Amino acid sequence: MECIVINGQNPLRGKISINGAKNAAVAILPVAIAAGDVCIIDNVPQIEDVACMVEAMESMGVICAEMTKHTLYIDARNMTSQTLSERLAQNLRASYYFMGAMLGRFKRAEVPLPGGCDLGARPIDYHLKGFTALGATCTTEHGTVKLHAEKLTGANIYLDCPSVGATINIMMAAVFAEGKTLIENAAKEPHVVDAASFLNKLGAKIHGAGTATIRITGVPALGGGEYTVLPDPIEAGTYMIAAAITAGDVTVENIIPKHLETVSAKLRETGCIIEEGEDWLNVKGIESLRPCEIKTAYYPGFPTDLQPQIAALLSVANGISHVTENVFEQRFRYVGELKRLGAHIKMAGRTAVITGPRLLTGAQVSATDLRAGAALVIAGLNAKGQTVITNVEHLDRGYEDLEGRLRSLGADITRCSQLPSASQ
Ligand code: UD1
Predict the structure, then answer these.
(1) Tens digits of per-residue pLDDT, 355-379?
(2) How many whole angstroms from 298 Cα to the centroid of ligand 1?
(3) Is the pTM of this model over 0.85?
(4) Residue 398: CB within 6 Å of ligand 1?
């Protein structure tokens, strides 16, 4: 059983260049299917979710080749199938993007319901509602969504909540719909803008991405092109919080500071000193952190994907903090594991009441999902003694070489192929 072993209490110091964004990359790759021509994608992170997307694309006859460590060549001209296997679809959440990409270009797709982190019910009804409004027939049989359309026609689509996945998926299909499509209450996340920018580069006509109203004028086909994936605000935020909890001094480079405004604001509230440049942020932690209130929200609010990590930080802050989760029903599965490390957390509905400061002490804990795993790493970096984290495959889905990169900042962290004997 692979695990991560951390000997805590080493302050992180130094610089780290942030990789391409996971959630943007997994949307940009299916755009290359919609393109139907050769695409070259740069700044692709080397993470499991990307490897799964590539495997899924290759299984349907797309040629994918690694040109350099972070550059992918994708040729979807001669795709042989528009049917994805259940195993490949369930590897990750973003497999739902094959629906919009293939429905748009081929007017048909068969994609099993997606997998991904278990954060409670994660329906895709808005995606299907959007495809139906564009004229597609959507049926779900034996867990597979079957989409078909003679032709797609532009429509007015209102999303009941600003779902990132539904916005990008509907956008990909609507690019090929005759006439005009209006997506209202659209998600405004940076990766929605990234997917729209790439689609536009390939010949699409999308206006308003990044606002609540997206207007799309259909085109008959797209061409090939090159694109660079935006830097990952969640990876950057994770290293910023890791710097804060170790009272370290870390500069995250190759980022877009605007995408991290709420994270910087909250870290400042805890007393951390944040300096900002054009494409970098420096975080200096302090010994006695102040508590703060966190309410997750859609962009530009505090990202739900950094909620577990900041909860770990607040467990060592001096006072009572409240962390309220407003996006996913069950994003507190990590709480029991953080408590093993010494955190004092009580749940009150969707709010975690965190009382600090607590002296965290190393223990064996299990990563219940990707960002929960990141929270445990952050807590382990602060904890006295040895922390052993199991189920680390969750971390590999979204962080490239997490241990190596933390080691380069001074952390004592290693990956072991089996549990250290004291933990067995
Ligand atoms: C994406 C991200 C995930 C992030 C989340 C919110 C990817 C691959 N994943 O997930 O990392 O945590 O955005 O920023 O980009 N909903 C419905 N019906 C739908 C779609 C969504 O009820 O058809 C609900 C969800 O249950 C959730 C909320 O809307 O409560 C937001 O979901 P959404 O933005 O779609 O998140 P994901 O695309 O799953």
Answers:
(1) 998 899 999 999 999 999 999 999 9
(2) 10
(3) yes
(4) no
